[in-house]
Amino acid sequence: MIPKYTIQYTTQFSKHAQPSHYSTDDPVVCEQFVEELLERGLSLPAIKHEGLDLPKNEFDRLLKNAAGMLASKHICASLHIKPEEEKFRFGFIA
């Protein structure tokens, strides 16, 4: 059975890149994993949905949501505020 989402990412070592992938059937888990990749600055060449590359607009939307969650976490941690206040003041996804 093909997993719903497969995220291809690359870990860079000193002289070579190590391609890897992560699979899940849960779209929320997929978004959280993309957030982790963004946090660590890893390369994200492709996200597949049921074996096919996500269309560009869906890929961009998923990345934008993950980046918003990451920004929200950093703002909350830096300013010592709750997610509700962050959403009210800055409007990122809590």
How does this structure look, described?
It is a single chain. This protein is of the alpha+beta class. It has one domain. Helices cover 49% and strands 27% of the residues. The protein contains three helices and four strands, in the order E-E-H-E-E-H-H. It has helices at residues 27-40, 56-79, 83-90, and strands at 5-12, 17-24, 43-49, 52-53. Strands 2-1-3-4 form a four-stranded antiparallel β-sheet, covered by helices on one side. The radius of gyration is 15 Å and the shape is globular. The termini are far apart. The relative contact order is 0.15. The model has no long low-confidence stretch (mean pLDDT 92).
Annotate the secondary structure layout:
Layout: E1 5-12, E2 17-24, H1 27-40, E3 43-49, E4 52-53, H2 56-79, H3 83-90
Antiparallel strand pairs: 1-2, 1-3, 3-4
Helix pairs in contact: 1-2, 2-3
- Termini separation comes to 33 Å
Mean pLDDT: 92
Gross morphology? globular
Beta content: 25-35%
What's the number of domains?
A: 1
Helix-strand makeup class = alpha+beta
Helix content: 40-55%
Give the spatial strand order of the biggest sheet: 2-1-3-4
Radius of gyration: 15 Å
Quick summary:
This protein has three helices and four strands, in the order ββαββαα. The chain is 49% helix and 27% strand. The longest helix has 24 residues, at 56-79.
Keywords, separated by commas or semicolons:
94 residues; alpha+beta; four-stranded antiparallel sheet; 49% helix; globular
